Amino acid sequence: MEGYKYHVMLDITSKLMFCWNVNYSNKTVSIRVTCQLPPNYWFGVGFSDYGEVTDADFVVFWNDPVATHHLQDSYTDSHGVLHADHSRDYTLHKARTEDGLSILEYTRPFDTCDERDYLLDNGTTHIVYFVSKGTPASCVGKDVRDLHHGFQRVQLLKPDVHLPPLPADVWTFEITAPKVKIPGSETTYWWFITTLPILHHKHHIVRYEGVIQKENEDIVHHIEVFHCVGRKHVHPYSGPKVPEGKMDPASDLASCRNVIGAWAMGAEPIIYPEEAGSPIGGEGFSPFILLEVHYHNPHLRTGHVDSSGIRFYVSPTLRQYDMGIMELGLEYTDKMAIPPEQSRFLLSGYCIAECTQTAFPRDGINIFASQLHTHLTGKRVWTKHVRNGRELPEVNRDNHYSPHFQEVRVLRHVANILPGDALITECEDSTLSRSNVTYGGFSIREEMCVNYIHYYPKVDLEVCKSSISDNALQNFFYFMNRIEDIPISPDKGIKHNYGLIPWLPEHVSILNYAYQTSPISMQCNQSNGQRFPGTWEGVPLTKIEEPLLPEDRKCGI
């Protein structure tokens, strides 16, 4: 690993290690692969869209019977069969075997302009591999599906940004679950009211990270820590989450919506820029905290006890700005549904110009990190930035998103969002394996489309999300009833009506058109859970009159 900034173990059995550096000046990645295997083994390492070994881009290494090294730029077809890629688009620096350790070092561009090669980007990258016994005369024609194979998820193109060291006066505390007996159900949201350390003077959180109990790593899906703004007292609570829409607005818990920490599967520690920190403590600051843990327990296991949570790093030395976390995207509601058996279905959640105009300061806010979030059907997620009808560079994008790898990612370029700008978070979902409608909601089998942005300076806007307006959805149901003769009734409820629709391609197109053109209902919500003053029901969608042009790949030049 010496000389390489990043590394990941691909396969423990064969000690297959992948190390890399990123060079943005010449847009290349330098890679070192090591594998500890006997001489009569061969292996391949590469990339694919979602971790499949079909339609994948591989570099294959083997020794022939006379111990000659062979290296082949390869790819697999849709059946997993290896082919030689005759456009060799990497630069080999080293290929040798030392004391049973095979070592490869090579460099490749982000974009090779070869349709057989994987296009590297700053979203999730699935590194695929295979290992097999034998000394083949050639790798061509081998079916990788028959070999020992697997994958790991990373953000390969890490941003080249300066992350400051921890201050000398930093100290830590943890907010963790109180030995929760995880229920034997697939989805549980557990709420726990606790308190922060008593701080008589204002401090800044400068870093936080997940503290996940090892035996529950495959069950703890994500965690959020909410500050109960302005509360002098909050009644104790430890139990399942109160369903949205059923909570008393006057409840103590209704005020606990100010996010100060968020973790999800795969997330690394989040380190704040040296000019910003998350404020806690001081005169009049409520010490009450709500911890929310989402347990995903598909095998319905019982007997697990959990004390997972988040560790916070705190300094009394204040930074220039307070930072905050804001939630963008779609409201968690069954109004936003995805038809079954769809290869890709687009959902869009809006933070409209009227909301940012109301809530943002004159110089706007600066987004420095982003955590994209969906449940199981999410495939691609991104957030657009629109100013006066003109689309600016995107805030964040993940073209190969995985719900099992949801990092808080520091952005390579800070995004300045001015009052009057709009932010549109979009998700492409795949429901090919589902025969019934997928609804928006909290369950892992339901869907979300969210971007948790980390920004400074902190404002009072906590949630900026949307859903199709109630009237627009009823108009859709009315159309399906009158034109398509489907027995839909406004008295039967949203899920009942969606469930009656036979999802023929024309019906899917009509719903998609309704989502992409209809007025919306906005959540332009303050940290106390209340909406900002304004008209937020039935507002028009943000129009993009000047779309962002695709990046010039400079192929064929």
Give an overview in words.
With 557 residues, the protein is mainly beta. The protein folds into three domains: 6-154, Sandwich (Immunoglobulin-like); 171-320, Jelly Rolls; 324-539, Jelly Rolls (Sandwich), CATH 2.60.120.230. 7% of the residues lie in helices and 44% in strands. The chain contains four helices and 37 strands. It has a seven-stranded mixed β-sheet with strand order 31-28-34-25-35-36-37. Helix 2 packs antiparallel against helix 4 (505-517). It is globular. The two termini are 35 Å apart. 41% of the residues are buried. The model has no long low-confidence stretch (mean pLDDT 91).
Please state the overall shape, judged from the principal axes of the Cα atoms. Answer: globular
Distance between the termini: 35 Å
Supply the CATH architecture of the largest domain: Sandwich
Using only CA atoms, what is the Rg?
25 Å
What is the topology, as strand order, of the major beta sheet?
Answer: 31-28-34-25-35-36-37
Question: Spans of 5+ residues with little confidence (pLDDT < 50)?
Answer: none
Domain unit count = 3
Number of strands: 37
Which CATH class of the largest domain is shown? Mainly Beta
Number of helices: 4
State the helical fraction.
under 10%
Mean pLDDT: 91
Main sheet record: 7 strands, mixed
DSSP strand content: 35-45%
CATH topology of the largest domain: Jelly Rolls
SS-based class: mainly beta
